[in-house]
Amino acid sequence: xxxxxxxRIPVRSLDQRPSSGPPTASRTLSTxxxxxxxxxxxxxxxxxxxxFNADPALLNDFTDSLPTHGSTGGFDYAIIQGLAIxxxxxxxxxxDETGSIPQGTRSRGLARNDAFGRWPDGIVPYLAPTQNSxxxxxxxxxxxxxxxxxxxxxxxxxTDENADQYPSYLRFDNSNSCAxxxxxxxxxxxxMVSDGCTQGSIIHEIGHALGLFHEHTRSDxxxxxxxxxxxxxxxxxxxxxxxxxxxxxxxxxxxxxIMHYGxxxxxxxxxxxxxxxxxxxxxxxxxLSDIDALSVDQMYQTDLALLPPNDSGSGDILExxxxxxxxxxxxxxxxxxxxxxxDDAIWQSVSSDSGWECLDYDTELRCTRPTLSEFSESRFxxxxxxxxxxxxxxxxxxxARTYDPALDNNHYNDDGTLSKEPADDSAxxxxxxxxxxxxxxxxxxxxxxxxxxxxxAQTSNVVSNDASSGGSDNGSLLLLALGLLGWRRYRAHIxx
Length: 496
Prior knowledge:
By secondary structure, the chain is of the alpha+beta class. Among the domains are: 108-210, Collagenase (Catalytic Domain) (3-Layer(aba) Sandwich), CATH 3.40.390; 304-412, Immunoglobulin-like. It is built from six helices and 22 strands. It has helices at 25-32, 103-109, 134-150, 199-210, 290-299, 475-495; strands at residues 69-72, 75-80, 83-86, 90-94, 123-126, 154-157, 169-174, 179-180, 188-193, 226-227, 274-275, 304-306, 310-311, 317-326, 332-340, 346-350, 357-361, 364-372, 376-385, 395-399, 411-412, 455-456. A six-stranded mixed beta sheet has the order 21-20-15-18-17-22, with no helix packed on it. α3 (134-150) packs across α4.
């Protein structure tokens, strides 16, 4: 069942995100730096750029005979040139001759409250907007960078070289409108932009593509705003309907959301369509509010964990067996594991099929990994000359760009000594190499080979491994992974 989702969550602790509310002064100033933004707050009416405008390129043989409105799954939509348009700027897909959304399209066009409308690992591929106008290109790039600076989402440019890695991706289409689907649809997915779309409007549309709906249609909105139905343009009242069909609300209502309508949206006069308490402003198109950013991070959150290391070495050599888990329903990306034993430890080697790239930062070993899939684990072995130290002296810290609300299982034996950033960018070259075969590692796609030398952070001799081969699954994790693989193949099938 396809369900829309409204993600609004409580304020996180200081080390996760700034406090909730409208954009802070520092964030707003940063957003406005070197850019001029048209603010569409209380003055947006029917000619707002987020209002879907007809495009001659979309005409088809039965456009003139279509009804003006349709409904599916509890959602009412307008029909404009063969497209089902929800709440003014949300694309649901094309309609047939009767004005209905075909079943195949219907299953893809509405966001859902499960993991299958999310971009895998929190990474959003997109095509470079080379066919868009220069103004559109500048605004698109600004909007993408704004999302990356304020959330844990990462956007990557899709190219011929990485096309197989990213079968689902965004395409920014030059059109007469600002519009987007909600959540990942599968395959190529359009975000419509025009020269009339401001940077803030494109930030808004990307928010839809990530999975956000409009704030003013939350099921609890009547506790915070009023709607003057008499002032709404005929036929546009469906854009103000409260959505109760399987929706979820997280956290407090957010007047400062970039996803909120303005007071005068779809007004037939100079009177507002949305009534707010005195002193409250809505409909800003400048920057993400803190709750906007928190909402998307929560939507894509994961649950990483470390297991206690084990030692199978002998003498002064510790052979540390390290296990990293992703217990969450979604994958994580840009993982980093920091390992420390003693200040005079000499890091020797890491198993080559681990999927991790490790650098020796003098007293610390820092290992990174591009992604770790949901319901999976990665196990690898590190050899270190630790003198008199034992496995009980090992400290570890695990971090990721993906938001993880449960940080208590992301560290081991760490009293706060370890940090995400190295204290010193310099590093010492590895003195010795190990030619012994690493034991105990398991991998579902490759066999263990002799461990390579850990590279120095000052050299280009980085251990490069295929990240997809770094996770080993056993027991219930294997069953979960196989089930997930089946779901992903099913999704790829229905997206075609």
